[in-house]
Structure formats: structure tokens, C-alpha cells
Structure to design on (542 residues):
């Protein structure tokens, strides 16, 4: 089960569970009623929430470290693509050591990720700009000889609660990004520990606030997300592959199958969805091809494009970004897993197709399965190439972008910015593909999306990963991975290696474009900060 070595919470709810599970405590850990225990629990559950929401590993490290330093909790973080290890405390009696292992199936939940990021930035920023007692709503003791009524104390606490709520809602003036990093660097390592017995109720209140954020019901209903998988599959197929009306309908239906199986697979914590989904789409796609004819329905288009949510293109791109950010081990593991996932997808499609042929057409030649060469054939009857008409591109793009925003579980307040990022990426790659090869076009598109995501993050004081994912989602390599894996499974070594190299070059091109976007913005940010006397800033991150 995913989580911190404990049974997972229930599904999304408006309120947190009555008795939330806590991390396991070793014999040397603090007892449950001490402030150190509550601080450990707050840090561990925040890291778990960020991990399961699909945050990049470098962002998890940054935010968890900021929270731990703000709470004066010693911490060491080790990250892997499928797990996070936290070493809390040290050898002192004040902070006894505790190890926490976090694992599970991360989901791309941009709304939840934004809410968590805002919550921790508000808390850390308030701790940095106010005293610890004010953050925890503990009233200051009255001056000697003065008399303070209970009503005045309640009014003081009420004002502090209102200020804190305003920070959570407005997010104005809250230190974040480089500002927080500068504060961390300037803080004395011997800062006095502010945890005391009086802070236990307030730490519990902060933990309850975190549970409200984690278990809040998402804006996108489940049935909308399932329906969005169908529209996204049909839209991606129409945008990049010559399609017939039968192809669009078949891909839409198989996309619904993908969305339905994925939804229940995440609820049941299935770790083999990247084999189950392509097997089902391959089997059903083969049935469509046999019933409607290969000239009307292309097996490769319907079966491959309906598995878009499992494409290894985005994981491989994120892996290279992880390597560039210093997480070499996690990045290398992600790259290896990306290639392994492509083999799973191709294997599942082939097995599903061959199983149907063996059952429904036993006299077919041995080893025959669905046709994938039709994915590049624009001469099929009634085939239409959407990319050749800008009006057709516009007609396909907006429903596709809306579906992608729902699949990424973005909030409506994020949709305009995510749609603009997708439009910039698609427009750039369509225009540059007319002059440059696919690698250069992908690099330029990644550069444009990276610049936009950085600017959005700086201007809106918000996460840029939502815009980044939405931007590269529509042109990250996907079908090429699956084509290469099918060639590998059919012993066509030359074509499989060619496809693999093409995919790696394209993923590297996107990563180079994102890295160049960081370098391009760095001088401007440095000049701006020098003008305010704050010194240099490191290259921005997402």
C-alpha cells in the first residue's frame, strides 16, 4: 500500500479522517505527545502528499527541506523515482533519530500540487517573517503587573488566524523560491529550537490544516477524467497521424477503456497498469480492425494512441531534467524505467492482438498481428492529415487541450495558463518542423515552453510544472517508443535501434531546450535582484 508504512487513507473527502494514521515510531523516537513527534509527523506527511501528487523530486526536496528547517528539525532526504527516504533527527536526545520510507503510485494532480505548494510557502514564509509564537497562535505573556482579559486574548488569536488565512488565500508578499533559499543560507545553524510543550496543540492544528488540503475533493469528477481520456486519445491521433473517421471513433472508444481501467487501477493500487491497459487496447483494437477492415481502421493508430497516458516520453524528459538538477541516480533510474515501459506497452499491444487473432482467425499466418505501417500512410481511403490545415489544427487543439488539462487534474484557475503553454508548444513544433528536423524542432519547442513556464512561475508566484507538463504533453515522444519496442519484439533489430535513438534524441532535445530556457532567464533575474541589492540568484527551477 502506498504511504508511510501504514494503510492508506480513504478516497478524497471534504474533511480529513477522524483518526489519521501516523508514521511508525522506532523505540528511540519521541513519544506521541511531544512537540518533536508532531513536527516529525508534519514533515513526513507533507513529503508523502507531495510525492503522491506527482511533484518532481527536486521540488519535493526543496519544499520538504524548507519546512524541516523552518521547524528546526534536522533532516536528510534521499529520493528515488518510486520512493523517498527521510532521516529525521540526529544523535541528540532532543531530536531522536527516525527513518521514514514513503512509496506509492504518484499521480499527476496539478491542483493538489499547487495547493500543497501554496500551503507550505505560506507556512514557511510566515515563520520566517514573524515570530514562532505568532505562527502557532500562542499569545504573548502580558507585561508584568498588567491584566489581560480572556476576550482580549481571543481577539489577539482571532487576528492572527485572519492574517494566516489571508496569506493562504492571497499569497501576496510570501517569500518563495530564491528568497527562501537566501533566508536559509543566512540563518545561523545554532538557532534556538522553538518547539515546546505549549506548541503541541498548534502543531496538531497545522497537521489538521494539512489533512484538509490533502483530502479535499478535487474539482475534476472521476467521470470527466475518464471521458477526457477518450477525447485526448482521439485528439492526439488526429493531430499527428493521418486518420479516417473510423480511426477517430475507435481511438476515442479505446481511450475510454484506458481511462476506466486507469481509474480503477489507481483505486486498487495496481502496479501493472502499463501491461494491462495496452493488452486490452491491443485486443479490442484488433477486433475493430477485423470487423471494420484494415482500410478503415488502423490498428496502430487506435491501439497505440489510446495508451498515451502511459507514454514514456514525459518520464524520460523529466528524467533528464532530474539529472540536470543534480538527482543523477533518480534520473538514470527514470530513463531505464522509460525504456522498460516502452517494452511493456509494445508487448501488451502485441499479445492482445495475437490473442484475438488466435481465437477469431485460427487460420491466419503464424505470428501475424495488427498493422502499424498504416500509421504513416496518408493515401488510405478517407484519410485526412490535420497538420496540413491550420483551421483543422485549431478545431482539434482546443478540445484536446481541455482534455489534457483534465487528465493532469488542473484547477480551472490553471487552465488558461496550461492551454497557452500547450498552444505555444504545438505552434512552435509545427512551424519549426517545416524547416528543421524533429530533434531541433523539439529543442526549440522545449525552449519556448520552458521560458513560458519560468515566467509564469515568477510572475504568478506559483508552480511552473503544470504549464511545463501541459506544454510538452502534446509533442513529447510516445508512439515512436512503442514502434521501436514492437520492432524489437519481432526481431527487427535495426529498426528498433533506430526508433530508440530517435526517441532519445528527441527527449534530449526537449531537455536541452528547457535547460537553455533556464540559462536565458538567469541574467535578467540577476540584474533585477542586483537592482534591489539582494545579490545574485541561482537559475530558476520549475
Amino acid at each position: 500500500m502506498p504511504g508511510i508504512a501504514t494503510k492508506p487513507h480513504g478516497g478524497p473527502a471534504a474533511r480529513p479522517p477522524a483518526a489519521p494514521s501516523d508514521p511508525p515510531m522506532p523505540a528511540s523516537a519521541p513519544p506521541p505527545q511531544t512537540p518533536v513527534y508532531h513536527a516529525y509527523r508534519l514533515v513526513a506527511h507533507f513529503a508523502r502528499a507531495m510525492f503522491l501528487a506527482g511533484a518532481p523530486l527536486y521540488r519535493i526536496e526543496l519544499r520538504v527541506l524548507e519546512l524541516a528547517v523552518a521547524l528546526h528539525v534536522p533532516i536528510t532526504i534521499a529520493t528515488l523515482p518510486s520512493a523517498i527516504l527521510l532521516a529525521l533527527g540526529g544523535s541528540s536526545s532532543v531530536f531522536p533519530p527516525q527513518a521514514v520510507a514513503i512509496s506509492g503510485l504518484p499521480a499527476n494532480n496539478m491542483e493538489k500540487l499547487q495547493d500543497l505548494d501554496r500551503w507550505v510557502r505560506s507556512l514557511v514564509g510566515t515563520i520566517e517573517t514573524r515570530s514562532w509564537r505568532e505562527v502557532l497562535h500562542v499569545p504573548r505573556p502580558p507585561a508584568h503587573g498588567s491584566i489581560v482579559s480572556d476576550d482580549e486574548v481571543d481577539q489577539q488569536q482571532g487576528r492572527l488566524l485572519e492574517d494566516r488565512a489571508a496569506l493562504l488565500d492571497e499569497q501576496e508578499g510570501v517569500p518563495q523560491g530564491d528568497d527562501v533559499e537566501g533566508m536559509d543560507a543566512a540563518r545561523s545553524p545554532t538557532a534556538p529550537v522553538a518547539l515546546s510543550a505549549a506548541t503541541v496543540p498548534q502543531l496538531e492544528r497545522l497537521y489538521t490544516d494539512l489533512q484538509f488540503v490533502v483530502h479535499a475533493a478535487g474539482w475534476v469528477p472521476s467521470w470527466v477524467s475518464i471521458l477526457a481520456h477518450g477525447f485526448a486519445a482521439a485528439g492526439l491521433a488526429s493531430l499527428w497521424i493521418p486518420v479516417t473517421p473510423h480511426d477517430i471513433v475507435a481511438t476515442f472508444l479505446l481511450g475510454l477503456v484506458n481511462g476506466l481501467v486507469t481509474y480503477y487501477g489507481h483505486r486498487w493500487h495496481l502496479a501493472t497498469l502499463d501491461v494491462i491497459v495496452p493488452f486490452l487496447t491491443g485486443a479490442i483494437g484488433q477486433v475493430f480492425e477485423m470487423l471494420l477492415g484494415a482500410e478503415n481502421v488502423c490498428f496502430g493508430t487506435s491501439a497505440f494512441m489510446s495508451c498515451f497516458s502511459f507514454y514514456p516520453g514525459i518520464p524520460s524528459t523529466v528524467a533528464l531534467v532530474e539529472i540536470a538538477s543534480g538527482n543523477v541516480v533518480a534520473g538514470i533510474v527514470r530513463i531505464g524505467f522509460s525504456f522498460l515501459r516502452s517494452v511493456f506497452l509494445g508487448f501488451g499491444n502485441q499479445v492482445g492482438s495475437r490473442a484475438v487473432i488466435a481465437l477469431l482467425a485460427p487460420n491466419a499466418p503464424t505470428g501475424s498481428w495488427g498493422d502499424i505501417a498504416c500509421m504513416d500512410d496518408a493515401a488510405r481511403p478517407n484519410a485526412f492529415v490535420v497538420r496540413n490545415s491550420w483551421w483543422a489544427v485549431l478545431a482539434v487543439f482546443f478540445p484536446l487541450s481541455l482534455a489534457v488539462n483534465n487528465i493532469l487534474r488542473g484547477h480551472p484557475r490553471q487552465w488558461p495558463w496550461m492551454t497557452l503553454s500547450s498552444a505555444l508548444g504545438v505552434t512552435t513544433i509545427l512551424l519549426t518542423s517545416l524547416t528543421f528536423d524533429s530533434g531541433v524542432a523539439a529543442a526549440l519547442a522545449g525552449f519556448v515552453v520552458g521560458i513560458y513556464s519560468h515566467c509564469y512561475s515568477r510572475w504568478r508566484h506559483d508552480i511552473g510544472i503544470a504549464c511545463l507538463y501541459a506544454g510538452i504533453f502534446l509533442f513529447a515522444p510516445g508512439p515512436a517508443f512503442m514502434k521501436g519496442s514492437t520492432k524489437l519484439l519481432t526481431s527487427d533489430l535495426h529498426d528498433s535501434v533506430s526508433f530508440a535513438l530517435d526517441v532519445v534524441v528527441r527527449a534530449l532535445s526537449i531537455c536541452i531546450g528547457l535547460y537553455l530556457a533556464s540559462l536565458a532567464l538567469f541574467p535578467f533575474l540577476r540584474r533585477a535582484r542586483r537592482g534591489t541589492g539582494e545579490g545574485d540568484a541561482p537559475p530558476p527551477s520549475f
